[in-house]
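notes to self, project folder thing:

trying the whole complex as one job this time. last attempt i did each chain seperately and stitching them together was a nightmare. two parts in total, labels are on each line so i dont mix them up again. if this works i'll redo the older ones the same way
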Amino acid sequence: EVQLVQSGGGLVQPGGSLRLSCAASGFIFSNYWMSWVRQAPGKGLEWVANIKQDGSQKTYVGSVKGRFTISRDNAKNSLYLQMNSLRAEDTAVYYCTRDEQWGQGTLVTVSS
Amino acid sequence: DIQMTQSPSTLSASVGDRVTITCRASQSISAWLAWYQQKPGKAPKVLIYKASTLESGVPSRFSGSGSGTEFTLTISSLQPDDFATYYCQYYNNCFGGGTKVEI
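result (full assembly):
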């Protein structure tokens, strides 16, 4: 059974940093593209970033380029999202995804 | 960058109606498309993956079709539990803007 278990998240001040983690199991992690998706309160779903199987290719939505970094550790079956220079508009529930499979989501709140 | 255009954005329907939602990709995405249902305060739930494969446990009134750039989600007979917002997604990439199905 595919499992994506997320950790990290919480309350952070504007300009601060946060790191999200996602532990994968039930499939060969190194065979799959992985992504982060978010949903701001009352808004639609927004894809944030993806990363190729070997980490050699990464793509970001424009609003997070230069601030967020997606990475993975295939030896640890883990996906990460380093979020720097956080803004109020980054407040959202963040999901780790593999194709149509999603983690449980974690809330990131950016507020003073 | 590939863009996903979903229509309509809002759909008013009645129980028993046949409902169709369309998702268009700005370039071919083969069959790398999923459909999700989301209810207020809940996480999205996958209905269809790889454009036309029904997720286990999802009622058979839901179906997906299409490939390349044009895709549809059809609900053959709308049930009270189906009033929700629906999203399409190009795998590991962008979403359509969503379709709210309301009474």
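what i see at first glance: Residues 10 and 27 of chain B are 24 Å apart (CA to CA).
need to look closer tmrw
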